[in-house]
Amino acid sequence: MSDVVVSFRGVTKSFEGMEIPALDGVSGEIRTGVITGLAGPDGAGKTTLLRLIAGLQQQDQGDVRTLGFDPIKEVAEIRSRLGYMPQKFGLYEDLSVIENLTLHADLRGVIGEERKETFDRLLDFTDLKRFTGRFAGKLSGGMKQKLGLACALLGKPKLLLLDEPGVGVDPISRKELWSMVGDLVQQGIAVVWSTAYLDEAELCDTTLVLNEGNMLFNGTPAEMTAPLKGRCFHLKNLPSDKRSLLTKALARPEVTDGTIQGHNLRLVIGKESKTFPPEQIGATGSEWAEVAPRFEDAFIDMLGGGPGGESVLARHLREIPKNGEVVIKAENLTKKFGDFAATDQVSFEVKRGEIYGLLGPNGAGKSTTFKMMCGLLVPTSGKASVVGLDLRHSASEARQRLGYMAQKFSLYAHLSVQQNLEFFSGIYGLDRKERQRKSAEMAEIFHLGAFLKAKTDSLSLGYKQRLALACSVMHEPDILFLDEPTSGVDPVTRREFWTHINGLVERGVTVMVTTHFMDEAEYCDRIGLVFRGQLIANGTPDQLKEMVATEKNPDPSM
User: Fold this and answer.
1) Which end of the chain, N or C, is less packed with Cβ atoms under 10 Å?
2) Alpha helices in 311-431 (DSSP H)
3) The sheet that has 61-66: what strands, in order across it?
4) Distance CA 304, CA 121 (A)
5) Please, are residues 148 and 88 in contact by the beta-carbon 8 Å criterion?
């Protein structure tokens, strides 16, 4: 039997100004030999629990024991035995990789020959040996997380706390991180992996699921998904537009959740319900096929089901006729920074009312391509045009026709929600009366009314992203550029976002999006795969999956 390294009983923690406790009487334990997942949406209480375990905060009620010690009264006893990797990149961006390691080794008391051996081992383990002289701020998202992991492992900790290490990291880097953490568990280290990505939670040996400070579940992923057996289905052989069929399916009383998955709809049916004839939503000739439940299906079900498929935002925006016109065009687009080609001879076209996705690992050139298509960066060579306007010569005119939501939260943190709405509507050219009308309308659509006077910096990540989307669509653009719009937000908010995106596209808006969620790529009409600045593949999600299908894996995932 594995050893218990952390136990917490009846733990409650509140913060001033919060309506509900960050943690409300939660109990559980963490053992060696397994990866313990700490899953839940933004604001669930995951970071608070990790900080209590690490002795960085004190609970209001309840008992916490870390490695057999009180983490507040006996913090010196646990400090050298615990590694903690915070949610936000916690290293010094203006220090190099080796300088960050040296600083953390000094703080941990790792000296002499032990330091040299430890550095060699960790640099090999994280594959950072080639980048020891690079500033931490110049590393890709995946490499930053590897450096954070290396610093957390100095001193050979018995317990490793990882706070959302996969946020903003591409699937390839996330796989590498998982492999590394798996190796650590084999060495006897107890690992807690906090995550809002429920596909990550499904990979853990055991999982604690939090929501709004309450413990929803404590057990294995298989135990979590078992109650949904017989309730998850694909609706196959769809006759027409998947987006409109999903909207109709989500309006059915039998359906509690639904997404697009390849050429199918993935639908979860209520406990007391049965599947309905497909022709009732206009899917004549389609058929039902039962599929295995996923962790995310179970989580959404625990919350009472997902949001509906009707976008209130789309109802408030004008309709743009879909005429097959090419409205986004890149021709041999290249951007060099010195000798480095961030984007190299990239060409693609996007038609009106289409969702085009750019996928690729961190540092592949997706955001650089995005910024050139928005007129925010001037290409070194090649041509970028939107709605027939060359962005090199008509960038300001083109910007009035498009909306842009940046990868990193780009609104003004010290302005209130109301001030951000009014500022951005003014930037997009709306007059005073229209600014006031649109600001009120967006506040209602995105449920921002209670936060209008609050500083934007005080919002949770989910509400920050809602505000960013609201600011980007206030002027009713023809084209919407979304750079990782749902990174780090919970599954319910992600579904809300895609309900809005699908609704906008149905009204003729053209969307270009980047994402690290492979299930989100399924919503795209076409996808461009970017690697080392080049477009290496281009096609529908099903065409890309067919390229790698084999006899052993006839239906590969994205």
Assistant:
1) N
2) 312-315, 366-373, 395-399, 417-427
3) 23-31, 4-13, 61-66
4) 47
5) no
* Gyration radius (Cα) of the chain, Å: 24
**pTM for the full predicted model:** 0.81
Instruction: Classify residue 76 as exposed, middle or buried by CB count within 10 Å of its CB (0-12, 13-18, 19+).
Output: exposed
CA 252 to chain centre: 28
Distance between CA atoms of 46 and 149, rounded to whole angstroms?
A: 18
- Give the tens place of pLDDT for each residue, 152-174: 888 888 999 988 887 767 777 77
CA distance 2 to 21: 32
Confidence label for 89 from pLDDT (cuts 50, 70 and 90):
low
pLDDT number for residue 254: 95
Cα 436 from chain centre: 32
CB 28 within 8 A of CB 215: yes
Give the pLDDT score at 409.
Answer: 62
Which of 389, 386, 392, 459 has its CA nearest to residue 420? 459
pLDDT at 168: 65
* Residue whose pair of structure tokens reads 């006893």 in the numeric block: 77
**Phi and psi at residue 249, to the nearest 5°:** -65, -40
d(CA 479, CA 135): 36
Contacts of 327 (CB under 8 A, 6+ apart): 350, 351, 352, 386, 387, 388, 478, 479, 510
Q: Each residue of 34-50: pLDDT tens digit?
A: 999 999 877 789 999 99
Q: E strands along 353-478, which residues?
A: 355-359, 381-386, 389-390, 402-405
The pLDDT-based confidence of 192 (bands split at 50, 70, 90) is: very high
> Which one, of 421, 469, 489, lies nearest residue 449 by Cα?
421
**pLDDT at res. 389:** 86
